[in-house]
Amino acid sequence: MLKIEGLRKSYDGNEILKGISVDVSKGDVISIIGPSGSGKTTLLRNMTTLEQADGGHIQFADVDKDFQKLSSKDIQTIRRNVGFVFQNYNLFNNKTALQNITEGLIVARKVNKSEAKKIALEALERVGLSDRQNHYPSQLSGGQQQRVGIARAVALNPKVIFFDEPTSALDPELVGEVLKVMRDLAESGTTMVVVTHQMNFARNVSNKVIFMADGHIVEQGSPESIFEHPSEKRTQEFLTDILANV
Amino acid sequence: MENIKLIINFLGQLLPAINITLIVSVSSIVLGSLLGLGLAAAKQSESAILRVFASIYVSVIRATPSIIMIFVVYYGMPLFFSAWFHINIEGWNRMYFVIIALTLLFSAPVSEIMRSAYGSVSKGQTEAGLMVGMTPFQTFYRIVLPQAFVVALPNFANSVINLMKEGALTFTIGVVDMVAKAQMIVANNSGGYAWQTYCALALIYWVISLAIDKGVTLVEKSYQAKRKTIAA
Which ranges does the record mark as transmembrane (chain B) (predicted)? Predict the structure, then answer.
């Protein structure tokens, strides 16, 4: 459904992504793990055209082109078929929880207002925040903001939802409520690509794990194969380090 | 008591000329804001030439005293127009020259205010707008601009009040505004009642400034109130 090949990205001559290929099928829940600075977030931002990749090919939703040849119409097509959940939530500060969700529906998708409101309320219900619909982001806790952020992405009914370290900015006691929402989404068949440091999520919820280091995909496979029998030394070291700190 | 009566009497004579002050101020505010917006955009632009041009423009304008700007425009522009475009603009209403001078003056602080207000809205807001499928323009107009506006408001109001006061120099090129009117009244009274006359004039400016100030506070409050409508 979504196929990326040979994605490259450099900043000031530093190559951050050295030719990444990712294949996402419908219903996949893919966790991308790896040490800080390995390029996980950059990969997500380039796959979704938030940043302009230096090279590589994308095949997704009527678009089948090299990243550098994407027209603004192609970019719009890609963006309208993905959802994105940010590390810092990035809720629209001048909009209520409900408006945060209806905004994209009404303005970008041309859904009429009452229909948009209905969809938004359903999405809020799904993340357990129906009673917070008229609150502004500044009146919500981090966990609640992130759940609205997830509802905003879900309501657009995209082909894939990308999560960029969705729990990394949260206080530890708020992580659980967000992970629960993500787990529910995964179980209901939502296609998800998640950059995460939550190894439990990667291991128990996803059906595929990608381990990245230094701009490469070192290893990928089922959670069992990555966590139980990693074949690469780099993966073993990373897992030993991170599991020792849990 | 006698003085108060005189001041009220002078107020009555000065007020009819207020429309000149208002036309000059409002026109310069609108045009200056648009120019300022353009300059702010130029400063953010990818093109180094535009950025450098905008920076130089802003520093030159900011360093020009208002009265000199008005004279430069009034005496310089007709020469420039006849030499370059072969258009004679000497017959123009003199008010236009003041409006142009004040527009140029106003655009510099406005561009700085807008640039910093724009910078205060996090980049994540734009990214979130793009990722729900809005175009860059829709994102700017619906998400970034309303937030930047609230940030810019107090500084913008300050600049508006400054501009209005600088507008008191309009009389220097012979436009009959309130200041010119005050001078005429004093002259007609052979220099008598001068302080009462100017006191009346000052009162008018105080009231306008206060009104701007209060208006802005009200707008700010309404924005804050909107965020507090629901207590948990």
Answer: 20-42, 54-75, 95-118, 139-157, 193-212
Q: What pTM, to 2 d.p., does this model score?
A: 0.82
Domains of chain B: 2-231 (1.10.3720.10)
Answer with the residue of higher pLDDT: B91 or B37.
Answer: B37
The pair of three-digit structure tokens given for residue A220, joined into one six-digit string: 């990928």
Cβ contacts of B78 within 8 Å, gap of 6 or more: B88, B89, B90, B92
Q: What are phi and psi of A170, to 5 degrees?
A: -95, 150
Does residue A102 contact residue A113 with C-beta atoms inside 8 Å?
A: yes
User: What token pair was written down for A40?
Assistant: 């996980």
Partner B contacted by A141 (CB < 8 A): no
Identify the residue among A41, A70, A88, A92 best suited for mutation to test binding to B, counting B beta carbons within 10 A and taking the highest: A92
Q: Return d(Cα B132, Cα A110) in angstroms, integer.
A: 12
> What Å distances lie between residue A222 and A135, A214, A230, CA to CA?
40, 21, 10
Mean pLDDT for B181-190 is 88
Structure tokens at B202: 């000052």
For A131-148, what is the mean pLDDT?
95
ipTM score for this prediction: 0.92
Asked if A57 is an interface residue toward chain B (Cβ–Cβ < 8 A), one would say no
Contact B122 A152 (CB under 8 A): no
Residue with structure tokens 């006061």?
A: B165
State how far residue B27 is from chain A, nearest Cα, in angstroms: 30
Percentage of residues in chain A having pLDDT higher than 70: 99
Distance CA(A133)–CA(A126), nearest Å, equals 12
Q: Look over chain A and give the mean of its residue pLDDT values, rounded to a whole number.
A: 94
Q: Which residue shows structure tokens 């991308």? A: A32
Distance CA A105, CA A116 (A): 6
**Structure letter (DSSP) for residue B148:** H
- In this structure, what token pair is assigned to residue A61? 């939703």
